[in-house]
Write a structure and sequence with these properties.
single chain; binds xanthosine-5'-monophosphate; alpha/beta; 489 residues; eight-stranded parallel beta barrel; four-stranded mixed beta sheet; 21 strands; 34% helix; CBS-domain; TIM Barrel
């Protein structure tokens, strides 16, 4: 379809222009309502929420927490390739039931080196191998074994570790349940996995197994490691970045540029498809039916929709480019819905906006400001000296502050030049400090379930199946006064 056949009732409309007409409820328990949705054809999420690839939204903590809560974090590209790849690899290593390539130190390492190693990698137990790179298990050194006094720093770890003959180990194919039982019975925290020649095959920790059991919604890959995604651009060193991110274990690329409906995107998708076949590509941003069809035709697995609705955006103010977000979502669904997946990106101020986005076309929703200001978002808590209220910084990725920071450790002169000569289309603001993002995600989960119940269905997918062919049947357009009645409190 094209814009001419879009029902005029959508033109110029966004989230605050509609309410959802309540349907007859059929659920006995809202807690049982499934919110599963597809990020791409291959990847599904139990909570259809994705945190923005912005330097004030998604770093290590946000990426881990998003995946643990059933969503996904996209690690931003406003940093060096090395730093971004290191973050991806830390997410992949965190909380997996089996750590496949556990970090090791050789038996000749000193206590001082072990302290530094544990701190740098944020781990409590280090596997000790018989010689550097041998991969043969000699023992385990935990934080408890490491003497804190500096005088011991030059002594070899061999003097303090639990040696192999006193360790319990298991074969690589041990089930998580058996591993947990072994660790419970022995009252120890970690179980090295080895083969018949004592070669290290992996590591299971009690903390990780317990943590994952307590989070049934966690987004995991087929090896039970947390899912994570990383953003790349379409210029400069993006292919080198993609190679490194892939080596670090990223599950999905977000090819993210301000104007995705462009020839540079076509080249980038083409290159990435041949370089990293099979890796899902979420590409954007676009805001029109033509833009979505373009993405489908050049091979995107999902299209990211939103030009200018974001809280840190100035694109509409500075360039006049943009489409009201609910219209953009509907327009793209009419163009490519059911063929590739749609992610609504930007402009969500209230939880009801998320449901409207999903009911009108989006498969998943990306949030920036709504998740900013939390403990898990990068950046410090600042206190306003006048009001004593706590705040954090939220900023658009093309704000002068974010651009400057991203240039600090860039060797890519083309990218530096391009950034320096492009006037900003983003801004920095202060947002209230909000505590843990876990509470926000739980609130969103609860509100989405309630919305599905009001839609008269028992799952998000059933609700979308009902509304997507003609959402206007379920929507109440608002007048000035009904908008005041609904939202002014
Ligand atoms: P919200 O409304 O959730 O929006 O805070 C997050 C989205 O905003 C986009 N973004 C930008 N858009 N200039 C823009 O025009 C920018 O500097 C900028 N930085 C982020 C991005 O799509 C994000 O997910």
């Amino acid at each position: 379809m094209n814009l001419n056949s879009l029902d005029p009732a959508w033109i110029g409309k966004t989230f605050d222009d509609f309410l959802f007409r309540p349907q007859k409820g059929i659920t006995e328990s809202r807690a049982a309502i499934s919110l599963t949705s597809q990020l791409t054809g291959q990847v599904s999420l139990e909570l259809p929420i994705v945190s923005s690839n912005m330097d004030s939204v998604t770093g290590l903590d946000m990426a881990e927490t998003m995946a643990l809560e059933g969503g996904l974090g996209v690690i931003h590209r406003g940093q060096s390739i090395e730093k971004q790849a290191a973050l991806v690899s830390r997410v992949k290593r965190s909380h997996s039931a089996v750590i496949e390539n556990p970090l090791c130190l050789p038996i000749t390492a000193t206590v001082g080196e072990a302290k530094l190693f544990a701190r740098r990698h944020n781990i409590n137990g280090i596997l000790i191998e018989t010689a550097e790179g041998s991969g043969v298990l000699a023992g385990v050194l935990t934080r408890r074994d490491i003497p804190w006094q500096r005088d011991f720093d030059d002594r070899p770890v061999a003097e303090f570790m639990t040696t192999f003959d006193r360790l319990t180990t298991a074969p690589a194919n041990v089930s998580t349940e058996t591993a947990e039982q072994i660790m419970f019975e022995g009252r120890f925290e970690r179980l090295p996995l080895i083969d018949g020649e004592r070669r290290i095959q992996g590591l299971i920790t009690r903390k990780d197994v317990r943590f994952l059991r307590e989070r049934p919604y966690a987004s995991k890959d087929n090896k039970a490691r947390l899912l994570t995604a990383a953003a790349i651009g379409c210029a400069g060193d993006y292919l080198e970045r993609a190679d490194e991110l892939l080596k670090s274990g990223t599950d999905c690329f977000f090819i993210d540029i301000a104007h995705g409906h462009s020839t540079v995107m076509e080249t980038a998708i083409d290159q990435l498809k041949s370089r990293c076949p099979g890796v899902p590509l979420v590409c954007g941003n676009v805001a029109t039916a033509d833009g979505a069809r373009f993405m489908r035709d050049i091979g995107a697995d999902a299209v990211k929709v939103g030009v200018g609705p974001g809280r840190g955006c100035r694109t509409r103010l500075e360039t006049a480019a943009g489409v009201p977000q609910l219209q953009a979502i509907r327009e793209t669904w009419c163009a490519v819905g059911g063929e590739i997946r749609i992610m609504a990106d930007g402009g969500v101020k209230h939880d009801k906006d998320i449901f409207l986005a999903l009911a009108c076309g989006a498969d998943t929703v990306m949030l920036g400001s709504a998740l900013s200001g939390t403990d898990e978002a990068p950046g410090r808590v600042i206190e306003d000296p006048a009001t004593h209220t706590k705040k954090k910084i939220y900023r658009g990725m093309t704000s002068p502050e974010a651009v400057l920071e991203s240039l600090y450790d860039s060797d890519d002169t083309d990218a530096v030049d391009a950034a320096l000569y492009t006037p900003p289309e983003g801004q920095e603001i202060q947002v209230p400090y909000k505590g843990s993002v876990v509470d926000i995600l739980q609130r969103i989960r609860g509100h989405l379930r309630s919305a599905v119940s009001y839609a008269g269905e028992t799952s998000l997918s059933a609700a979308r199946e009902k509304t997507l062919p003609d959402p206007l049947k379920f929507m109440v357009p608002l007048s000035e006064s009904s908008r005041r009645e609904s939202y002014e409190r």
